[in-house]
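Renewal narrative, Specific Aim 1. Our central claim is that a sequence can be written position by position from structural information alone. The example that follows is taken directly from our test logs and has not been curated for this report. It begins with the structure tokens describing the chain, in the order in which they were read.
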């Protein structure tokens, strides 16, 4: 498990991520999901997006309909400029909860990046209808 963090400078967030990942080896599936998501959050805070992706894959193997995990993966893929993949995860989030304005906004950004402007406008309208635009 420590090899996952071999290239990280073990600052405070990396240590927290390591501890969360260590905790993920114990407990039931839900405890593992929470621990893995916690580790991902700390990694993302440090900009270690590539390191977080395999952990999210583990979460999604345990809980394929986890909106937080799907949304986090969409966000990471956007940070990495992998717009089409991010778009697919935004769509999965919205299929599970179409009331999430932030997911509509994120989908709109992805659509703009892949050149689908009319679809992006529709997503912006959906975000506004959901009652929040940040």
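The sequence written for that structure reads:
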């Amino acid at each position: 498990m420590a090899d996952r963090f071999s290239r990280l400078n073990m600052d405070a967030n990396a240590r927290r991520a390591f501890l969360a990942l260590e905790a993920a080896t114990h407990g039931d599936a839900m405890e593992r999901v929470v621990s893995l998501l916690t580790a991902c959050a700390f990694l993302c805070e440090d900009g270690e997006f590539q390191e977080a992706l395999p952990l999210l894959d583990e979460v999604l193997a345990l809980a394929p309909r986890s909106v937080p995990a799907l949304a986090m993966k969409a966000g990471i893929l956007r940070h990495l400029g992998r717009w089409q993949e991010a778009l697919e995860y935004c769509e999965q989030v919205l299929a599970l909860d179409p009331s999430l304005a932030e997911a509509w906004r994120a989908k709109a950004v992805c659509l703009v990046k892949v050149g689908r402007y009319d679809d992006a406008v529709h997503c912006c309208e959906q975000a506004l209808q959901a009652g929040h635009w940040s």
